[in-house]
Amino acid sequence: MLIKIAKPSDLHESDVTPESIYLSRRRFMGGMAGLGAGLALSGHARANADYSDVPDGNAPAWLKEKISDTQWRAITPSDPEKDKIAPFDDASGYNNFFEFGTDKGDPARYAGSLQTEPWSVVVDGEVNNGGRFALEDFAKPSQFEERIYRLRCVEAWSMVIPWLGIPLAEIIKRADPTSKAKYVRFETLVDPEQMRGQRSSFSIIDWPYVEGLRLDEAMHPLTIMAMGMYGRELPNQNGAPLRLVVPWKYGFKSIKSIVRISLVEEQPINSWQQIAADEYGFYANVNPNVDHPRWSQATERRLPNSLFSTNTIDTRMFNGYEDEVAELYAGMDLRKHY
Amino acid sequence: MATQRKWLVWRVAVFLAALAPLVFWSWQVANNAAGPEPGRYLLLNIGIGGLWMLLLTLSLTPLTKLTRWKGFALIRRQLGLWTLAYATLHMLSYALFILGLNWALLGSEIVKRPYIIVGMIALIGLSVLGATSNKWSMKRLGKRWKPLHKFSYLILSLVLLHFFWVVRADMSEWAMYAAIAALIMATRLPPFARSLPKLRYRLSRT
Asked: Can you give the residue ranges of the Oxidoreductase molybdopterin-binding domain (chain A) (predicted)?
């Protein structure tokens, strides 16, 4: 019966539940699922059994332990037939991670040089409980959850990815923000020795890669800090060892290999906004009604596709998470705040 | 007779070399080695391949001046037509594999996206040059043939602009092609063009 509690919960369940109750219910479920996963390990088939063809990584022991304790299938797509999980090879072989090059295959080819252990994260800015934390201590107090999310790239393609991570809200609460904190600013590692893309003198990006969220976006229960995917730790090309995942925004918002999280008063200028403010805004919410100046955002190619079928589907408002997040933007002109 | 055969072998070899990348990319797609978006893989590779063809075609005249080797001039029309073939396949890949033959979308995309307009103009230009590359057209156009085909340099500029507008984050690849293009164009400027035979003379003496 315990396992039944942890069975796939539909996204739409939160439609009718006020956020505060939704959150507390989820926390309750998280606790129960911990028990459930413990039982599952001691005999039943593991909930991630369908990742049997995913190659094992080289996760440190503490991370393996956290992952084995995951609340599996905590959030799944409401239509799993339409939103089929992409093959691991595609999710880990077709990436935008310009720190390692601009070709979609470059990150998989060159991210092996990234040292992800040991890793530490600086939490600073408008917080009472800042400092430098080892990733292990950063992750330990929270229960890992598996979240199967649609990932919509600003380049008009999308994939469905099963992430493993913890709600960003828990991390922010632990940092204890002051009343001045209005935004969260994230920074990716800068290390040209390990990241060959940062050695290019023709790069348009002014390293480090920077992203940001409004505090209420960061606290939203759908926003997570991922440390794994497909039942294992993150491959380096997917942003190991720590990345953001904000499923209702274009993929570039979900910053990878994070070394710094700052609570700030002013709206941060994210890297793509700095490069081309007329093409990429701060919010970058998935929106089929606001085109990128160089291509349409009305549709997307769901990957993998084939030569015979582009697998083109209509892009949904907020990437299909409208019921959960639309209220964050009530009264805002999303054409202006793209 | 022997020299005739030699040139035939040379032209067939060039033909096979120009065909080889297309065969390789198709092979990759057929073997699921082209990633999760094989259409885009073909689109981008064929696009870059077409730029290579155009740069190679335009480098033949300066190479002839530099070396006086007859072989370069013999493959100029062939490589020009290969450029047109790659450009056409590039456009078809876009229509088939990216737009999925959604003609309404193609219509709206062409109007709204400047890089597509520029690419289409370049393709139309290449088609005109391809259509007038035969002996009959050369005879009909007479003196006007050469100035008409000098438009290939304008087309090269359009192709680079088209490429420039697609780049998202790193200009290094684009900059490399732009530098090669600038070098080729510079060799056609009169002062440089005159110095090429002198350079050949100097090289032949060392």
From this structure: 115-272
Q: Is the ipTM of this complex over 0.90?
A: no
Q: Provide the pLDDT confidence category of residue B1 given band limits of 50, 70 and 90.
A: low
Q: Is A7 annotated as a binding residue?
A: no
The residue of A252, A302, A310 whose CB has the most chain B CBs within 10 angstroms, and thus the best one to mutate to test that interface, is A310
Verify whether the Cβ–Cβ distance A301 to B98 is below 8 Å: yes
Q: Where are the domains of chain B?
A: 2-205
Asked if residues A234 and A241 have their Cβ atoms less than 8 Å apart, the reply is: yes
Identify all chain A residues contacting B166, using CB atoms and an 8 Å cutoff. 294
Cβ(A157)–Cβ(B97) below 8 Å: no
3-class state of residue A122 by DSSP: strand
Give residues with Cβ within 8 angstroms of A4, minimum separation 6. none
Average pLDDT, chain B: 91
Smallest CA-to-CA distance from A155 within A319, A301, A15, A54 is with: A301
Residues 75-114 of B with CB under 8 A from A: 96-100, 102, 105, 108-109, 112-114
pLDDT at B205: 74
| Contact state of B37 with A307 under an 8 Å Cβ cutoff | no
Rounded Cα–Cα distance for residues B90 and A279 (Å): 25
Name the residue ranges covered by the structural domains of chain A: 2-329
A304 interfacial to chain B (CB closer than 8 Å):
yes
| Inter-residue contact B201 to B195 (CB < 8 Å) | no
Q: Is the pTM of this model over 0.95?
A: no
On whether the CB atoms of residues B83 and B57 are closer than 8 A, the answer is: yes
> In CATH, which of 2.60.40.10, 3.90.420.10, 3.20.20.80, 3.30.70.100 is domain A2-329?
3.90.420.10
Query: What tens digit of pLDDT does each residue of B21-52 get?
Result: 999 999 999 999 999 999 999 999 999 999 99
Smallest Cβ–Cβ distance between B36 and the set A86, A101, A200 belongs to A86
CA-based nearest residue to A160, from A93, A86, A235, A228: A86
CA-based torsion, A149, A153, A156, A162: positive or negative:
negative
